[in-house]
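User: Sequence in, structure out. Go.
Assistant: Echoing your sequence, followed by the structure tokens.
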Amino acid sequence: MPQPYGTWSSPFHAADIAAASPKLDGSRFVAGEIWWGESVPSEGGRMSVRSSNGCEILPAPWSARSRVHEYGGGAWTASSDGTLFFVEATTQQVMSLTTGDSPMPLTAPGPHHGGLVWQQGRLFAVREDLSRDPHRRGIIEIPTDGSASENPGALRIIAEGRSFFAHPALSSDGRRIAYVEWSGLQMPWQRASLRVRSLESDETFSIGTRAALQPTWIDDDEVVYLDDRPIIGNGIDGPARWSLHRVAIDATGAAGPARMIAPADADTGYGLWVLGNRWYQRLADDRIVAVRTNGADEVVVIASDGSIRALEVPATGHVSVDHADGTRVLLSGGGASARAGVWSVDVDSGEVTTIAGGSPADPAWMPPAIARTFAGPNGPVHAFDYAPANPEASAPSGDLPPYIVFVHGGPTAHVSGAASAAFAYYTSRGIGVLDVNYGGSTGYGRAYRERLDGQWGIADVDDVLAAARGLAEAGLADPDRIAIRGGSAGGWTVLSALVRGGVFAAGISRYGVADLRMLAEDSHDFEKHYISGLVGPLPQAEQLYIDRSPLTHADRIDVPVLLLQGADDRVVPASQSEAIRDALAERDIDHEYVLYPGEGHGFRRAETVVDSMERELTFLGRVFGFTPEL
């Protein structure tokens, strides 16, 4: 018998999703095994390192988590013989661990470390010292004998300053190191330089780049790297996309002309929010395995002659090519037909082995992500549509489903159409999900990304409104029952869209930005000048900050709002959500506010994930007039 949308019985419960959806953080071939990072939601999101032999390499209470640039990344690596190096979550010390021993500190407490890389028997890291004024960051080499834990002077400082650093890469002869550096006045996806430093003379040379990522040495005198420049070649004359380049460097450090490798109308690379991502790996025979993103991800093999072959792999979203060994590569990410996982892929045979996660998605319960493009006032708007799907339920004839429009954070981030149990939590109950890559998102080239420059709070709102209207006009959603949900910068777009009004019947903001001046005052170093590019510089643009902020126009919000916030959030403090809460309460607008102790910017604890999901579902049911099954 048909049942109303939103009331369908579902096997997807919040507790199951929280327990079965750990975060995966990199993978590596180690001493005949495969190691990978995996969070433990039941232990407060502790990040463990596990092995394909069934062992837990990093047991409780230890946790590998970096706080460099606040977003961290690259919190662990390992030597080929099985020594684990990791950033201890609490003290931010780098530590080493060999089987059967206790972790040994390699650095002193205090500075943050991340972006760990083990190359040719040497350990390098990105270091951030917030105790000094001005704050200092750099690339360091860490002795593995523990001497620097008592004597910080034992560290070798390779580069240091007020800039930001990433991706140290040692040449094969050990004489030079390449790395990425940016000033912080612009974000790394706007402008980032590729540097090469001599470890013998300490001279530093720059290679002309626009937004460099991930250098790798081919030999002693040639570097492969990523940069986003206009695509020229392979019959393509197109806008700027991140692409592979290679450049020769002579004995004096002078760089020759850069040559683009196998250009395509797709991105190999995206926003450098965290330090651990890898978008390609070079094999020993000079082939390259790389990710290409144009909406969804594709993994390809690029031969030395420039020919390209696609690999058939489950990973199609936020794919990282973590490591290579012989003809095998390790991929981590999500997939259109599989949940997030780690896979070992033999490039020659095509054999794919699931190492962690990666369970197949049942198409009867997990709807495919349908790529949709909507016409917007600023150009096309890209999104992925997940329609309601339940093999055991149907809706009354003629009914249209309620929908929830998801808005990612960043705002310079990207969604990829990967299978999601969190989405199935809604779609299996008869609530559709539209995941929007509004203008400003990565994955569609620099021009699409720059649509948001100076237009944050305008172009992103235009796009989510256009996507929601387009969905309703196509007869796919009930126009009176469309909600919007987002976190952080996505929460800003949620609140801004509710201020605009007329489309969304409810809003869910997770740790969302409500006031730009408050955000500018509270911003950490990494994003200190981010808002200047998205809105304008202070103090000149102060009135614009006031005019754009949802808090200024909270009196225009006339629909129910759910506000979810971490008490320990340092990126968007609770004061932002509480300011909106107070403004809604003053006008007696239907709202709920939940503060989660111990949570930061993004929810990690299983109990928080469960409570927030169930609250969202209950909230939607109350607003849209149905009683959902929890």
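User: And one key feature?
Assistant: The longest strand covers residues 236-248.
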